[in-house]
Amino acid sequence: MPALRLAAAVLSGLLFGGGLALSGMLDPARVRGFLDVTGAWDPTLAFVLAGAVTASGLGTALARRLHRPVLAERFDWPTRTRIDPPLILGAVLFGIGWGLSGFCPGPAVAALSGGALPVVVFVAAMLAGMAAHGVLRRALPVR
């Protein structure tokens, strides 16, 4: 079963990355164009987001009807529903990083295949930020 789960994960990642490439979302200029609502606005990302929300909604509705996942023993549904300061701070930092760079984590990892230096720098900074978050989270536990 672990080999089948790994194969499903790799296939899912390839499908996701291929979809991002096909939709043009690996190009940070396209993302910044979407965020530039007062200038040369590019609505392409809105269609990609609408497709993603639709697919996610349908997938979640289907999953909620299943007794258990196909390749796991149980579903890992989120248990926290509270909107707290760390969530807000994280969302703000994500938005600032996305707006400045034009990348969010998924497209950035997919764009690594092109080997462009700005993408490598972004992913390195992202990994450094994740490591710093881990250190700070252990040092300053939030209640």
Automatic annotation (TrEMBL):
Keywords: Membrane, Transmembrane, Transmembrane helix
Pfam short name (any one): DUF6691
Membrane-spanning residues: 45-66, 87-110, 116-136
Protein's recorded name: YeeE/YedE family protein
Species the sequence originates in: Methylobacterium frigidaeris
